[in-house]
Each structure stands twice: as structure tokens, then as C-alpha cells.
Amino acid sequence: MAGRVDALYFFLLAISAFFALLIATLVVVFAVRYRRRSPNERPKAILGSVALEVTWSLIPLGIVMVIFLWGAEIFFSMVRVPPGAMEVYVVGKRWMWKAQHMTGQREINELHVPVGVPVKITLASEDVIHSFFIPAFRVKRDAIPGRYQTMWFEATKPGRYHLFCAEYCGTKHSEMIGSIVAMEPSAFQAWLQGGTGEVSMAAAGERKFQELGCVTCHRGDTEGRGPSLQGLFGRQVALADGGTIAADEGYIRESIVNPAAKIVAGYQPIMPAYQGLVTEEGLMHLVAYVQSLGSGAASGATGGATAGAGGRPASQPAVTPSARPATERRP
Question: Which of 166, 158, 153 is nearest to 121 (CA)?
């Protein structure tokens, strides 16, 4: 997005410079040409000009409409994640960025990605508001406690790019920095071989699902006291109040921490709330597990893996980000 954002930015600079120069020039010219030459001189009455009024109204209107449409087109491109994007979950915590890939590898304050592949970032925060900012890519998104935020980027040139927290988050805010490491696909694949072989996020979520006893209610048959999760992700869910909602990451997270907020039609509000009982990373694992159970959307969920009978991914994308192990530093 950097080239497109910069093009609009330089257009705004050019428009601003043009009108600043034009207005400054006209101020000087008019001040000299129409100056008062004698104490007895009186200016002629000016009754106005409809043509002039229309002209200096329509020209600015046309300019700002160009800016609006151009900016809107870039905005929509920024918020619409391309199909097939790789998924990475990132948690902001004072004072570090913790990233985990769908295959399970973790990174702290560093994120390795291949060049030429869209990467979808799902952001969350464990404490206060942070802001995931990559200046070179012209992308920034807040990580807000209790809510998922998504963003995406595609590196076009190998290199190491700065990563910052752009929202003041405490005494060590200035130390909450990191790097995005963009690599050629071949080099990235070679780097992947140094992974630790950790279990995937879906497998970790399945394990958490079993530990919490969720399987006793969310069964795959009709005997469960809760709705089945097979093919849930991305599907429209009918609610008890008559409305519907898309089963995306945010809905699944809310249904875990506050299940009474949106009751599925045909079921009783008997599920306990897990607010404070499951960490933010644990919630992401559970979301990844539900996503791995299949998508109910017609177009499929972007970046999701098809699950086998045990809920583990049956296939992986050709290029998947990974990471070397990192020991989490405590603030």
C-alpha cells in the first residue's frame, strides 16, 4: 500500500503548495495594483459576479471530491483482506509484541514474512491500548483490550522494517519496538526449516477445548446442549432475539468470554463465562480451533485450514510464516 498512500499524499502536498503560492501571489499583486493612491480616492462599488462565485465553488468541490474518492478507494483496499492471505495472531502486552502463526511458531518483537504474500494480522491486547505500526508499509492498527482488530500488508521488497507501538502505553512505551523481516520465498522456506515443530494453534485450541470441558456441550451430534461448531466459522448465525450475526473471530471470542451477550436461537443461556479464566493467547487458540473445523461461508475463510476428524489442520498453505523460539520477557 505504500506507493498508493504516497501518491495521494504527494497529490495533497501539490494541491496545497499550488494554492498557497497562488493565494500569496494574488495577495501581493492585488495589494500593489489596487492600493489607495490618494486620500480622496474611493473604490467603486462591487455588486458581485455569479460566474465568479460558481467558479470558485465548483473547482474546490471537484478537487475535494477527487481526494475523497481516491482516499476511499485506498481505505477500502486497506481494510479488505485479500483471499488466501496468511494469518498471524499478534498480542500486544506491556511492553512487547507476541506473534504466533497458525502452525504454532512464536516470535517476540519480530515477524518473518515472505515477499509477495498477503499477511493478515489479527490483533488483541492483554492490558491497555497499543498500536501496531509499520511505517515503511504505511499501515497502522490499534490493539484494543477485549476486541479483535484486523489488518493486512504485503511486503514487496526483502529487508528488515521497523515495527513500533504508536499509542502511549506506559513507562516503557518507547521500548516496545520490533522488526518485520521480509524474505524471498526461497530464503523464507529455508528459514522455516529451523522451526521448533510446536503444535499448531488449532491443535493447541483443541487441547484447551478438551481441558475446559467444552466438548460435553458442543458435540457434533444433535444431543449436545450447545450448538455444533462444525462449519461454524464465517456462517451467519441466527440469534434468539431474531437477528443474525457472522461467526467471525470477534463473535467467537465474545461467545467464550461473555456467552450471554448473543444467544443462539434454539438454545438456553447455560454456558458459563470464561472472562478472566482464559488468557488472550488461549482465546486465540480456541478461535483458531473453531476456524479449523471448517467454514460455513460460501467463499471460505481466508487463510483457514481444513480440519480432519480430530480438529487438526489436514493441509497447510504452500508458504506459511514461522518463527524461531523466543523466551517471553516479563515486564
Answer: 153
Q: How many domains does the chain have?
A: 3
Lowest mean pLDDT: which of 1-10, 46-55, 267-276, 319-328?
Answer: 319-328
Chain-wide mean pLDDT for the chain? 84
Strand ranges in 191-317 using DSSP code E only, listed in sequence order: 236-238, 244-246
**pLDDT given at position 222:** 60
CA-CA distance, 147 to 163, in Å (whole number)?
21
What is the structure's pLDDT at 28?
Answer: 97
Q: Is 60 a domain residue? A: yes
**Would you call the peptide bond into 95 cis, given omega within 30 degrees of 0 as the criterion?**
yes
Say if residue 174 is in the same domain as residue 214.
Answer: no
Give the cell for residue 217: 456441550
Cell 479449523 locates to 292
C-alpha cell at 150: 484486523
Shortest CA distance to 164 belongs to which of 152, 176, 156, 153? 176
Structural contact between residues 183 and 115, judged by C-beta atoms closer than 8 angstroms: yes
The mean per-residue pLDDT over the stretch 279-306 comes to 68
CATH number of the domain bearing residue 152? 2.60.40.420
Nearest to 284 by CA among 124, 137, 169: 124
Q: Cα angle vertex 142, ends 137, 143, to 5°?
A: 120
Lowest pLDDT segment from 132-146, 181-195, 237-251, 281-295 = 181-195
Helix axes 201-211, 280-292, angle to 10 degrees: 100
25 — phi, psi (to 5°)? -65, -45
CATH number for the domain including 266?
Answer: 1.10.760.10
Does the pLDDT value for residue 196 go beyond 70? no
Rounded Cα distance between 233 and 39, Å, is 82
Top-confidence residue, 168 or 324: 168
- What pLDDT score does 195 carry? 66
Residue span of the structural domain in which 124 resides: 86-192
